[in-house]
Amino acid sequence: MRGFHRGAAGNVARVSFGEFVTRLDYPMFIATVPGDGCLVGFATQCSIDPPRFLACLSDKNRTYRLAREAEHMAVHVVPEDRPDLAELFGGETGDQVDKLSRCEWTPGPGGVPVLDGCASWFAGRIVDRLPLGDHVGFVLDPVGDGHGERDRQGALGFQDARDIEPGHEA
User: How many CB atoms lie within 10 A of CB 7?
Assistant: First the structure.
């Protein structure tokens, strides 16, 4: 899909949607449900009142299959200094590796794993599931959160994580 944009000199240039999105840099998240977790690049707040958050999971991974039946999900901001967590949850597949056995975590609201390496997180009750192409959007109603000393540090961005070889096809 190609579109147009106006360059600095005012001339119109063609740019593909793929080129457009590869230029973006948004925070990376890790979503966890009981039994697994995955790196999430597509996520956003989607309502103020009531508060809601949309986390999109690939329909090809184990976390998605578990989330279809889960009641809660936790969403963690990946800190800049924890690319190892992004690599673990994005570069490994839960079909072959128990990712949760390779990191420190504690049970959170609804039994979701809360990653010790991510100071900023929230857990939400899953209130809707929306098919969105090759991802499914999980609409979350926040029920608990955590913030720590590391909150002042920036989040790992898409540009920092784009070289992670996915644990499964996208």
Answer: 9
Q: What is the CATH number of the domain that holds 85?
A: 2.30.110.10
pLDDT in single tens digits along all 170 residues of the chain? 445 555 555 555 566 877 877 777 678 899 999 999 999 989 999 999 999 999 999 999 999 999 999 999 999 999 888 999 999 999 999 999 999 999 999 999 999 999 999 988 999 999 999 999 999 999 999 998 887 555 555 765 555 555 556 666 65
With respect to residue 35, please indicate whether it lies within any of the assigned structural domains: yes
List beta partners, residue 146: 121
Whether omega for the bond prior to residue 166 falls within 30 degrees of 0, making it cis, is: no
Task: Report the predicted TM-score, pTM, of the whole model to 2 decimal places.
Answer: 0.80
1 domain-assigned: no
